Amino acid sequence: MKIKSQRDFWSGLMFIAVGLGFAWGATDYSFGSSARPGPGYFPFGLGLLTAVLGAVVLFKALTIEVEGGDPVGAFAWKPLIIIVGSMVLFGLLLPRLGMFITLPLLVITSALAGDEFHPGEAAVNAVIITAFSWLVFIYGLNLTIPLKPWFMG
Fold first, then answer.
1. Is the pLDDT confidence value at 74 over 70?
2. Per residue in 83-116, pLDDT tens?
3. Do 60 and 81 fall into the same domain?
4. Confidence (pLDDT) at 4
5. Do the Cβ atoms of 64 and 5 come closer than 8 Å?
């Protein structure tokens, strides 16, 4: 079978691998029931849906002809490293610096990955995302996420 779109082919494989990986990882958690879902219920379902989406994209890549074969371009290493580094930094700093410092830091450093970085826009996005996250996770769901740095109590 001939690959008709390289971009869709590799995207489909990536979605399938990531989806099945999440679904497999979710099997370590309790599923609960439909009425009272456990911590593994949502990631398992989302992982399977992601894998099904990947299968659809992969099927399209193998059946629908596109002009020029839709080749995969060069890897954008700089944005990839900045985004992954920002997420790692967020995971490491959240327990120590709290959400009010770490989340804006994540948004601003992630914005550096784009071609057009505007500090004012990044700051406004950081404030909106931090306020929304506080509203949803702290106020709405009552999660115990540290808000302030550890040395401030």
1. yes
2. 999 999 999 999 999 999 999 999 999 999 988 9
3. no
4. 85
5. yes
Both structure tokens of 66: 């596109």
Residue type present at position 72: V
Size of the chain in residues: 153
Q: Which residue is associated with the tokens 């890549």?
A: 61
Asked if the model's pLDDT at residue 73 lies above 80, the reply is no
DSSP string, 101-124: HHHHHHHHHHHTTSSS--HHHHHH
16 and 61 in a single domain? The answer is yes
Is residue 97 in some structural domain? yes
Identify whether residues 65 and 81 lie together within a single domain: no
Residues 6+ apart with CB under 8 A from 4: 61, 62, 63, 64, 65, 66, 69, 70
Residue where a domain terminates, one of 43, 69, 95:
69
For position 153, what pLDDT does the model report?
Answer: 67
Share of the chain above pLDDT 70, in %: 99
Number of domains in the chain: 2
Residue 28 is given by DSSP the state T
Dmax (CA) of the chain? 62
Residue 1 located in a structural domain: no
Residues 145 and 81 in one domain: yes
Domain that holds residue 121: 77-152
Does pTM top 0.70 for this prediction?
no
